[in-house]
Structure formats: structure tokens, C-alpha cells
Amino acid sequence: MVSLRRFLLSPFFGVTLIVVLVAFFFRSSLRSPQHQRLFSAEELALYNGTDETLPILLGILGSVFDVTKGKSHYGSGGGYNHFAGRDASRAFVSGNFTGDGLTDSLRGLSSSEVKSIVDWRGFYSRTYTPVGKLIGRYYDSQGNPTKHLKGAEAKASRGAQLMEKQKTEEDKQTNCNSRWSQDEGGEVWCDVGVPRLVQRPLEIAITGSMSKRCACFEEDQLDQSGLEIYKGCEPLAKTCKV
User: Fold this and answer.
1) Boundary residue ending a domain (132, 164, 196)
2) What is the reported pTM?
3) What distance in Å separates the CA atoms of residue 136 and residue 130, rounded to the nearest whole number?
4) Least C-beta-crowded within 10 Å: which of 37, 132, 155, 235?
5) DSSP 3-24
6) What is the pLDDT of residues 12-57, one digit of tens each?
7) CB-CB neighbours of 71 under 10 Å
């Protein structure tokens, strides 16, 4: 008891208590919506998981989240540590985690890719604690959304609308069944009708590139323009090798 009393009265205990309290109130202030702060890029970089006394923060589309509870992933040596202490929005869809790939620029991305990044922001909003905004591309020095953020959100919204429209259109024509094996390769087939390759006209607006899909058409539909027979497949065959 005497030893404990001496420890409690010692200067060392007082300093330790102050450090703990400062860290507690610092973290509490970060997590309070009323005290969400504005970060510069240089300030955010301090929270990259290398300093054990600081929380781990991550930015996406200018929103900053405390991901400390995912320390095993975002901390030093973690698989997602490249996201910590910065806004690397582009890398969420590009998969480029080095050099110029770790950027918040969405230049050249398709509407579906931008939508995916907005969806990732939604994931962090649901899973982690928002602690502030990053001053720069998406928020100004007063914490107001910039034209870049509004543009990204509008592009994501257009992408969602186009994807829904594409799904509605494609649901009108049944997709082919398909399978693949290492021994036999791939094949497509239709339970009703015959397989045809058909353009996906909305795809270029959604992803930035044109693509085709396999759909099933009955014989009285085969005079439609734009239908392509699989190479080496009989015109009325129900199954085609691919």
C-alpha cells in the first residue's frame, strides 16, 4: 500500500496521467461530429499508422475516417496500409498502389468506376468513424464541397442510372447459360432459342469501352440487325463452343 501511494504521488504518475488524458480527449474530439476537423495533406500524412500514439486515418473523396479498429489491415505492415494517411481514391478501382496510382484524381475514370469509389465511401461511412475533411480537391479551406466532388457524385449517379437502364433492357432478352473447364474449354447454350452475340450499347457510357454479351433468340427474332453468330457454330445450334 505504501509503495502504491508513493507511485500515485510521484511525478512519473502525474505525467503518465496527463499523456493518457490528452490522448483520450484528442481522440474523442476527432470522433465528435461537432469537432470534425479540416486536414491538410501534410497533417493527414501523420496518421499513417507509423506512430502508435496516433489514430490511423484514411481519406476517400476528401472525407476522412478513423480506421484504427482495422489496425491489422491499415497499420504499418498491413495489406491496406497504402491507403492510410492519404486520399488515394483512384486506387480503390485502379488497383495501382504505387507512385502516381495513390492519388485522389479521378481523371479518365468511367462512370461505373466513379460510382464504385462513391460506394466505397459509403462503406467507410457505415463501418468506420468520420472525423473530418481533407482540404484540397474535394473540399475547400472552409470545408465546403468543391466542383470536383459535386462532379464526381453526379457522374456516379449517372452511372447508377445507366446501369439500371442497361439491366432493364437486357432483362428483356434472356442471357445464355455458360460454363468452362480446363479440359473442354468454354461453351454457351440456350434452353430456349439459339445463342447470339449482341452489342451492349450503353456499356461505352458506363465503362468507357464497348462489349458484347451472349443472349438467346428464337428463330423468328434472328432477322434483327446486330446479331452475331459464334465462330464455328451452326446457325441454329443451341450450344456453341467459345
Assistant:
1) 164
2) 0.69
3) 17
4) 235
5) HHHHHHHSHHHHHHHHHHHHHH
6) 545 444 434 444 444 554 444 446 799 999 999 999 999 999 999 9
7) 16
